[in-house]
Design goal:
497 residues, alpha+beta, 5-stranded mixed sheet, two-stranded antiparallel sheet, binds protoporphyrin IX containing FE, binds 2-acetamido-2-deoxy-beta-D-glucopyranose
């Protein structure tokens, strides 16, 4: 009986795989689009599941394999998926025809409370929440957050000095500690006595661990929304008790204290005091519950830690390999301290040009997020190649590949901050730099992340110089579905004399 069941199931699966592969191939042949045949059912996701590489690197292989195609299709079960190569088409999807591609291609299940955040939201709800969170990232707000970040950076340097054994080995982890402390303090107004012992840090380090179950759940989320819904998969359930609890506690405490700190908690209270969020045009309404606000905070927190630490790490790795750049940056930083009586401000940090160039170039070479996704919500036609795209089609657009294409960045593998000199900027058109995405769904935390990363880098480089150690196997990227994080390499902090 059991054996027969297994046999029947195997036959059904094989029949589905055969039929689905044919179906996907035919679907795209009719539209005149080249189809990635290596796995006709799961496309690059098959490569991702079976190889020790980031998903981005598999997309990169397709990019190189089809140099003359405006777009390449691949199988993702029943969802048609299109990987767009041509820059005009990319611009069409991300900006020109945003209305047809306003969806990220992910949707959260209802009971997964912390996934109910801007990244996963779509349509009018996305618009309502994005609009209500935008005031957190104005220059005035960032200015008031700067001093809290600076304090975290100083504490971090002190911590490294007191614990010499930490100056080498798993530096990424230690950078994520700084990021966690900075965002907890700056955005949530949570400052504990020792920033290195905070429960938030423990949670973020746990959340950063890649386990099989997480990879599996997230792969289903990006492969097929219907299947994701059917299996009722949750992504962040395990963090609910701690995180929602922490946000509730912060909000209630702030309410009772009745002091203004102009941070996330204050903004939440002000949103809640105004009541239901409404879109007058469509009549869509959304209640700003503690849970909804906690979900936004949760994603801000994850984003403030993982990709921000990746950007800092990539910058340090490149600086350690390029002594002249490092020296120039040391000079810029030392001068800034000397000209400002050892007391930096938001304006001084934002005005440091060479730091900005070095970071931009590091994020060009190693963008912490390697590609973007969208889903088509209105039938349309991509201008280059005249490709018909139907509602429901999942779209992937390259970041890493554009950043490494010699057509756009001559000698793309070399680290050259000078590419980002103002006078050279004209050659880098807007679509060609996408470390923070593009269009209406561009990273809401871009300026925040840059400020936090720069503040950390400034204090680290004021007190230390850098040595980059690459292992025998050579630099590579960690296996990850979204992130591009450097592996097989570490950075050592050497005290400056
Ligand atoms: C260096 C660090 C960071 C990098 C490289 C980064 C990169 C990105 C990218 C590539 C996207 C997708 C944009 C698109 O689809 O066009 C994104 C979206 C987003 N990021 Fe970031 N991010 C960083 C830090 C942050 C921080 C610190 C926050 C919050 C405090 C944040 C909040 C968000 C949100 C809410 C979205 C979704 C926006 C939407 O769908 O409307 N990110 N980020
Ligand atoms: C790091 O450098 C800053 C700026 O010169 C200095 O004020 C600070 O004392 C140094 N930190 C430590 C822990 O030595
Ligand atoms: C999904 O699972 C949750 C428990 O994790 C449950 O509360 C909810 O009712 C389920 N939803 C559906 C539609 O089955
Ligand atoms: C994956 O999804 C299942 C089904 O909702 C859930 O029970 C499980 O906890 C999830 N795993 C992780 C690591 O989130
Ligand atoms: C606070 C923190 O994350 N510290 C870590 C720094 O890296 C070392 C490994 O070299 C860890 O042992 C520390 O826990």
């Amino acid at each position: 009986m059991f054996l027969e069941l297994i046999l029947a199931l195997t036959i059904i699966i094989l029949a589905f795989v055969y039929w689905n592969g044919k179906y996907n191939e035919r679907y795209w042949r009719k539209r005149g689009v080249k189809f990635y045949k290596k796995n006709k059912v799961l496309g690059v996701f098959w490569d991702f599941l079976t190889k020790d590489k980031s998903l981005s690197e598999h997309l990169h292989n397709i990019y190189k394999q089809y140099p003359n195609e405006p777009a390449i299709a691949f199988g993702t079960l029943l969802t048609p998926s299109l990987y767009i190569r041509d820059v005009t088409n990319i611009q069409y999807v991300l900006t020109t025809n945003f209305n047809a591609f306003s969806h990220r291609g992910l949707e959260a299940n209802e009971n997964d409370l912390l996934a109910n955040n801007i990244l996963f939201m779509n349509g009018k709800k996305w618009q309502l929440v994005r609009k209500s969170m935008t005031p957190l990232f104005t220059s005035t707000k960032l200015k008031s957050m700067y001093y809290i970040m600076e304090k975290s950076a100083q504490d971090f340097v002190g911590y490294l000095k007191e614990n010499p054994n930490l100056k080498k080995g798993n530096t990424f982890n230690n950078l994520s500690t700084f990021c966690s402390a900075a965002i907890c303090g700056a955005v949530f107004g949570v400052t504990t006595e020792s920033i290195f012992n905070s429960p938030f840090l423990k949670m973020s380090q746990n959340a950063l661990k890649q386990t099989f179950a997480r990879t599996f759940n997230f792969t289903i989320a990006s492969l097929s929304i219907p299947l994701f819904k059917l299996l009722n998969i949750s992504l962040f359930k395990e963090f609910e008790p701690f995180f929602i609890g922490a946000i509730k506690q912060t909000l209630r405490q702030r309410e009772s204290e009745n002091v203004k700190k102009h941070d996330f908690a204050d903004m939440c209270l002000s949103i809640q005091s105004k009541g239901t969020l409404k879109d007058s045009e469509s009549g869509v309404e959304l209640e700003p519950t503690d849970e909804l606000l906690a979900a936004q905070a949760f994603f801000f927190f994850l984003a403030g830690v993982e990709p921000t630490a990746s950007a800092m790490f990539a910058t340090l790795v490149e600086l350690g390999r390029h002594p002249e750049t490092l020296q120039r940056l040391h000079n810029e930083i030392d001068e800034a301290f000397e000209m400002n009586d050892n007391k930096l401000s938001f304006d001084v940090v934002v005005g440091m040009k060479y730091l900005d160039m070095a970071m931009s170039e590091s994020m060009r070479l190693h963008p912490p997020v390697g590609f973007l996704t969208r889903m088509c919500v209105e039938d349309t036609v991509l201008p280059v190649g005249n490709i018909k795209v139907s509602k429901g089609t999942k779209i992937f657009t390259p970041i890493f590949e554009i950043h490494h294409d010699p057509k756009y960045y001559p000698d793309p593998e070399s680290f050259k901050p000078e590419r980002f000199l103002r006078e050279n900027q004209n050659s880098i058109s807007d679509v060609l730099y996408q470390a923070f995405g593009k269009g209406n769904r561009i990273c809401i935390g871009q300026r925040y992340a840059q400020l936090q990363a720069k503040t950390g880098l400034i204090y680290l480089l004021r007190n230390f110089t850098i040595k980059t150690h690459i292992t025998k196997e050579g630099i590579k990227y960690k296996k990850d579905q979204i992130a591009l994080r450097l592996a097989n390499v570490d950075v050592e902090f050497v005290p400056r004399t």
